[in-house]
Amino acid sequence: MFRSVRHMIYDLIEWRSQILSGTLPQDELKELKKKVTAKIDYGNRILDLDLVVRDEDGNILDPEQTSTISLFRAHEIASKQVEERLQEEKSQKQNIDINRQAKFAATPSFALFVNLKNVVCKIGEDAEVLMSLYDPLESKFISENYLVRWSSCGLPKDIDRLHNLRAVFTDLGSKDLKREKISFVCQIVRVGRMELRDNNTRKLTSGLRRPFGVAGNCA
Description:
Layout: H1 2-21, H2 26-46, H3 68-106, E1 110-116, E2 126-135, E3 140-141, E4 146-150, E5 165-172, H4 174-177, E6 183-192, E7 208-218
Antiparallel strand pairs: 1-5, 2-3, 2-4, 2-6, 6-7
Helix pairs in contact: 1-2, 2-3
């Protein structure tokens, strides 16, 4: 409401400047005055203020010099014009919403681009970094995992992919965008010994996958 009234006030200020400039021809001046009075009446209507009854030229009718019947008819005409303006704007807004919904529904899928810069986590062994999308309300993952194998040296196992760890989640449809919440979840799985402090060569194991950490960001 505030933004609508502010926009109308800016329009009235600009039109007032044009009227006071004295440079407009009579026909344009008359049309501009009608435009100003229509804007004022419309603003009074949406603010639930009294409707000002005017004549054809936009001048306020004097009840002392105008008959009751004439005032009533002028009030009916003014009310009808304002209501038509309200219905017109309502119809335009509905058309815009329908077009947006149609465009939204016509889009087959959406994508989320992810660029992994670094993994700052002291693991001590090789690890697997899995990234996926998760619906916390339904308690289920809504995408496949993007897997990056991370070495104990703090670099990708595939060194050729350094600074080029990118993925695109392409399985997002209109239904997914309507979800109330979507979380981006990162899971870290340690790959190596059963225990990090296990120095006994007889019990030494390797290649075991153990959960190490998880983090998420909700949007």
